[in-house]
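Escalation from tier 1.

The customer reports that the assembly of two entities below gives different structure tokens on two consecutive runs. Tier 1 could not reproduce it. I'm attaching the input and our single run for tier 2 to review.
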Amino acid sequence: MLFPGPLKGIFGSRSGQPASEAPRQVNPDVAKVLPRNGAPNRNGAPKMTATRTSRGLEEFFTHIRGLSGLTILDLGGASQKNVNFITDLGHRLYSEDFLSIVQEIFGSDSADQSNPGQIEYFLKQALDYPDGQFDGVLVWDVLEYLSPALLTAVVERLQRIVRPKSYMLAFFHADDKQEMVQSYTFRIDGVSALEISERGLHRPAQLFNNRSVEKLFGRFDSVKFFLTRERLREVIVRA
Amino acid sequence: MWHKRREEEPLRPSAPPAPAPPPVVHNPAPSPVEAKKEATPVSNMPPARFEPESRGGSATVGKAVKIVGQIYSKEDLYVDGEVDGTVEALEHKLTIGPNGAVKATVRSREVVVLGSISGNVEAADKLEIRKDAKLVGDIKTARIIIEDGAYFKGSIDIVKPEPAKAAPKPAAPPVAAAANASPAPASATVAEAKR
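Tier 1 run:
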């Protein structure tokens, strides 16, 4: 199935495996965070939505299916589908509109994201949870919006607030050569089905390849990649 | 076409109302004043007819009102102002209007948020967070509706309502006992009605 405009290549090409290990940083002057909800496409076109199979999501739910009463954190902001799906499985859902908080505290200037005081304040606002609180975290693509200092602090905090042997699902764009990438809203449509809506083009604060993602989660137990036909990497991280 | 319209316009004030259902007349002998009202609907209407649209019998905290303390409501409540404290409408519907800003623990049968709530919310039946609404706090409810564009930060506990327990049937009660037992509630009802 082909889509016009920015979704044109969503099922079109396999990503290659980049050779370099370090994440490529984008000029912080131009890195910009878009609001999570309601941001129109830059070209004014209506947002495109596609539903596709997600092996990462399937893997995530494999580990929590059959259990109930788990505590799941969703960093993508509250959406009806995600709330229904998680709570229908009998789990308790915590919702954080992570990127809204990033935008609120740091604005669109990612240079501030290296200020230790601001980082501490941000963590208190967005991830102030007791150690080992969560049995799973739906991270989606929010980590791409963080500059290195803030990203490191966030990943460290995530490691603290998840229980050992719990899982996180994160998405990274596969093409680390693009200056502008499409950002998405993710809604769970089934155990292995994900509804992806365009939110607009943005310049990520960093671009990652497989090696740099592994390095980012180096203190976690394991990192597993799922290659998709679109330009997104699905990553399952085990604490 | 234009000419016809111009002709019709001046006639409107004096024209009788369109074929509306005949008005319910409580007074068998309508006064001339009432007849005049029908002929010119714009003029001298009784004030009662111009009352602002009611909210279905709910109490309202207006947008220029701030309440610090505890609110217990035994009817539906519409809050469009500020409330700091607690809000309870256990068997009723609570609506936070678009101008409403509630910093309170909220307990209600049904909660609809169009403004903002900062505090924990328990909605026994249903919670709706509308577009552009903001809720920061932990939620316990049976059903939740979150519109796109709403902001929510906190936890969601879906508490399924317990199925109504059927009254335990006595094991083969004697007919005489059943006959004696049945009038009791009836008499109690009558007694309550008399009070």
